[in-house]
Amino acid sequence: QVLTVQRTLLQAWSIIRDTYVDPTFNKQDWTSQLKDTILKLSTLDSSETAYEQVRDMLATLGDPYTRIVTPKEYENFRISNDGAVDGVGLLIATEQESGKLVVLATIEGGPAERAGVRPGDELVQIDDVALVGMNGEDAAIKLRGKAGTIVGVKLRRTLKLKRETISMSPVYTAVLPHTNSSGQKTSTGYIRLAQFSQNAAADMQKAIFKLEESNVDSYILDLRNNPGGLVRAGLDVAEMWLDGNETLVNTVDRRGVTLPINVARGHALTHDPLVVLVNEGSASASEILAGALHDNGRAILVGHKTFGKGKIQSVSQLWDGSALFVTVAKYLSPSLHQIDQVGIAPDVECSPLKSPDDVSEAAGPEKFLERDACVLVAEHLIE
């Protein structure tokens, strides 16, 4: 087992040597790090402790995003980015003020929808695990499992749901009616983008076409708590809102060379007014998209300062099924603003989500959104 990890170590070390963004490797001799780690591995007798030594070597780079993950962890990552998951078809969110986990939406035709789960329902327990203090991602992991197995979900009532393989779209849409200050009735197309998976761009295009057919007057693009994902997907989505040859993002490689990435096709799918919602959970590709739309004058940003992850990574599957995430470049906004460890400040700050407690169980997701203070701010800005 240790010999297996040694082979993985050599593969990972070589990838970092050739591609890592900092050619000084945090001002250290990278070859010496390899030799020291191999010596430490020779005294170990389990793969678990051997992997810990590899992680310790990577930690010397001082970059928490350059890391090795186990085969099981990589499988979960691929589920997230491939857009299909074995679960019950629930999109959940944490209500900011109370910390409650509530249902944002159900996947059409999925087990949860068929069982009568509704937007606004509060999740209390999964199997025998109480959800007090648990974040949405950890709860989502507990809902996943092999298709055909049963999971107990306690809302205001207790359900037994059979897991299925569900095609997960990262895009959710709604049409929000609104009466402006002049008394005129308008409608806003709301689009929530949960992550930048492989099907994010295609699903975003379908969402915009669908909302255009509904004759909406404006758009809200919700990137709150979107941790990122595939950078290419973020760039593809940005192009759907921009014309011409605008700069989407600037990359800085390991040589310190700054290169712009510009719009390739230059034909926006809509020119209606746009507000983008962001918060401290908006990271990486979310920040690329928000920066592209903001710096090119296409959108107003509303919410809270973003996470501040201005790094571009490559993912390499290693021979034993594990994977290496390596920071290969940094990025700046189109206006050359630093994002890494800084984040993007919104044009307008807003309060957290209001409590959904007084929204009836029969209410649709639109009613839940009408209680969202940031959505209300956005609607006011685009009157």
Give the neighbour order of strands across the main sheet. Answer: 11-12-13-16-17-20
User: Class of the largest domain, according to the CATH hierarchy?
Assistant: Alpha Beta
CATH superfamily of the largest domain: 2-enoyl-CoA Hydratase, Chain A, domain 1
**Radius of gyration, in angstroms, nearest whole number:** 22 Å
Q: Helicity level, as a percent range?
A: 25-40%
**Low-confidence runs of at least 5 consecutive residues:** 354-364
Total number of domains: 3
**How does the major sheet shape up?**
6 strands, mixed
The computed structural class is alpha+beta
Termini separation:
63 Å
CATH architecture of the largest domain: Alpha-Beta Complex
CATH topology of the largest domain: 2-enoyl-CoA Hydratase, Chain A, domain 1
| Total of helices | 11
β content, as a range?
25-35%
Q: How much is the average pLDDT? A: 86
Shape: globular
Task: State the main characteristics.
Pdz3 Domain, 3 domains, six-stranded mixed β-sheet, 26% strand, 2-enoyl-CoA Hydratase, Chain A, domain 1, five-stranded antiparallel β-sheet, alpha+beta, globular, 383 residues
Can you characterise this structure?
Its EC number is 3.4.21.102. InterPro entries: ClpP/crotonase-like_dom_sf (IPR029045), PDZ (IPR001478), PDZ_6 (IPR041489), PDZ_sf (IPR036034), Peptidase_S41A (IPR004447), Tail-specific_protease (IPR005151). There is one protein chain. This protein is of the alpha+beta class and 383 residues long. It folds into 3 domains: 2-62; 84-167, Roll (Pdz3 Domain); 171-381, 2-enoyl-CoA Hydratase, Chain A, domain 1. Helices cover 30% and strands 26% of the residues. It is built from 11 helices and 20 strands. The strands form 5 sheets. Strands 11-12-13-16-17-20 form a 6-stranded mixed β-sheet, with helices on both faces. A hairpin with a 5-residue loop joins strand 14 (247-252) and strand 15 (258-262). Helix 1 packs antiparallel against helix 2 (30-41) and helix 7 (200-213) runs parallel beside helix 8.
